[in-house]
């Protein structure tokens, strides 16, 4: 089921985390942040909305690093029902696409719950003080990539956050597959 993200709750603090990365180390929120802000991306391997934009995520993360924005991707899906989202598959996807950011596994799903993530992709853009400034889409892509010359909503918003500390007042929600919650 496709869902849209809620509107940005400006200033909401970024919850801390300590999660295993596909590189074998444990990453915290502060390990991932840049000198001007942090972008937390909830993604997964199997979602067609994420598959359509993986190359753009890599491009934008590399360019945002130049602006002092650190990026991290987190997968929180239930791998029992969605084995394609397993940690081993996460390693393969990160290597295949050359992820320039940590790709972390939230097995307990507690980090996704703490952030209020609802779908993949779900983007949380924070300022230097880790206050939420962006909760919108990457661009106009859906299950297929939008044209190459489309407006880069996420990149433009996070560059603005890096430069001014404030995200855009108008934000278009991200859309994607629902997070696959475990039936506890």
TrEMBL record:
One MF term in the entry's GO annotations: oxidoreductase activity
Domain Thioredoxin: 8-160
InterPro entries assigned to the protein according to its UniProt record, in alphabetical order: AhpC/TSA, PRX-like1, Thioredoxin-like_sf, Thioredoxin_domain
Pfam family, one: AhpC-TSA
UniProt cross-references to PROSITE patterns, sorted A to Z: THIOREDOXIN_2
PANTHER family: OS07G0260300 PROTEIN (PTHR43640), THIOREDOXIN-DEPENDENT PEROXIREDOXIN (PTHR43640:SF1)
Protein known as: Peroxiredoxin
